[in-house]
Amino acid sequence: MSDRYYRPTFVNVNLDAISSNFKHIEKLHPNKTVIAVIKANGYGLGSVNVAKHLMTSGTDFFAVATLDEAIELRMHGIKAKILVLGVVDPKHIRQASRHRLALTAPDAKWVEDASRYIEAEDKPVWLHIKVDSGMGRIGVQTKQAYDMVVDKVAAVEQFIFEGVFTHFSSADEDNALTERAYDTFLGIINDNKPQYIHCQNSAATLRYDCSECNAVRLGISLYGYYPSEFIRAVSNVKLQPAVQLVSTACFIKHIKSGDTVSYGATYTAQSDEVVATFPIGYADGLPRAMQGYNINLEGTEVPIIGRICMDQMMARVPDDTLLGAQCIIIDNNADSNQSLERVAQQLGTITYEVLTSLSRRLPKRYYIGDDIEVYNELMK
């Protein structure tokens, strides 16, 4: 883990908060396996470091989106069970075997194609059949199609039918679609149930019991965020946000009334002003649409002015602001005006997109109790 970074902009990640969120939801479903979803580089927070910390808390099952993400975890010593949720090209089945991974089987043809690439001496590959209960993405849609996949898996010695799962399209909304999708899922898998049956994403985990299932998948809630305001309102679990995005003033200047700031001269000073430049931009995951958003500069809210650049952004600041003044762009306080939810609202998007847009060039400072560990991917 590299502890060097030379740009005073970083992401603070509270690993204690992540493990606390995991344990709170584990208590909510005490008889179910909790699968920690760490795809998209752990939702932008560093999948390897998040996984290593969760393993010290007893987590032994992870899920990612791609084969590459799964192999990355293996290459960094993660020995727990890993499920790849997306479709892996069948010709790469031996890579999954070599790294002892579980894959998603989206239909019978995929199983047939994958079986052509497996060799007699290969290690087992665990398969989780995907059921499309209304998401319209991947998976089988009928009981007949599901049973066919089960039969195809059983015909290959190296394939182990380990799980079946679905993904709800609208569990974070107040409608009846999820109940119907759950009934569809149960109807399809009724006669062929493997070791793991999972349908609950973060929203469904916080909202439903789904007693016929024995595993849940934690994504955004693992990191301390509710999938929607509706879920926040109906949930009995108090999640702890784990992320804070911070930058430090690297340049202070005085401008006069009529002076302009940044590309396109979209900001014109209405009076003499003090402007601070911060070394963070849209290449770091701070979109240009954040222009006009208020950041927290050591307790004072100040606006981002002018267009955000690729590597820098400017803010109008108090006259006494000094070099090195620190600002909070995303706060780890749900009630803050800089909360992740407020940022998502400013951008007209969802918290998931904001988190996963955080760039790899942002150093991460991991907090565990009183200890801080720094990881800079660019310096590893």
Which helices and strands appear, and what pairs or packs with what?
Blueprint: E1 9-14, H1 15-28, E2 33-37, H2 39-43, H3 47-56, E3 61-64, H4 67-75, E4 81-84, H5 93-98, E5 102-105, H6 108-115, E6 125-131, H7 143-154, E7 159-166, H8 177-189, E8 196-200, H9 202-207, E9 215-218, H10 229-234, E10 243-248, E11 251-255, E12 260-261, E13 267-268, E14 273-278, E15 294-297, E16 300-305, E17 313-317, E18 326-330, H11 340-347, H12 351-356, E19 364-368, E20 371-375
Parallel strand pairs: 1-19, 2-3, 2-9, 3-4, 4-5, 5-6, 6-7, 7-8, 8-9
Antiparallel strand pairs: 1-10, 10-18, 11-14, 12-13, 14-17, 15-16, 15-18, 16-17, 19-20
Summary, kept brief:
Helices cover 27% and strands 26% of the residues.
State the share of residues found in helices, binned by percent.
25-40%
Please state the average pLDDT score: 96
What's the total helix number? 12
DSSP strand tally? 20
Structural class: alpha/beta
Explain the overall architecture.
The chain is of the alpha/beta class and 380 residues long. It folds into two domains: 31-222, Alpha-Beta Barrel (TIM Barrel), CATH 3.20.20; 243-331 and 333-379, Lyase, Ornithine Decarboxylase, Chain A, domain 1 (Beta Barrel). It is 27% helix and 26% strand. The protein contains twelve helices and 20 strands. A ten-stranded mixed β-sheet has the order 11-14-17-16-15-18-10-1-19-20. An eight-stranded parallel barrel has the order 2-3-4-5-6-7-8-9, surrounded by five helices. Strands 12-13 form a two-stranded antiparallel ribbon. The protein is elongated and about 75 Å long. 45% of the residues are buried.
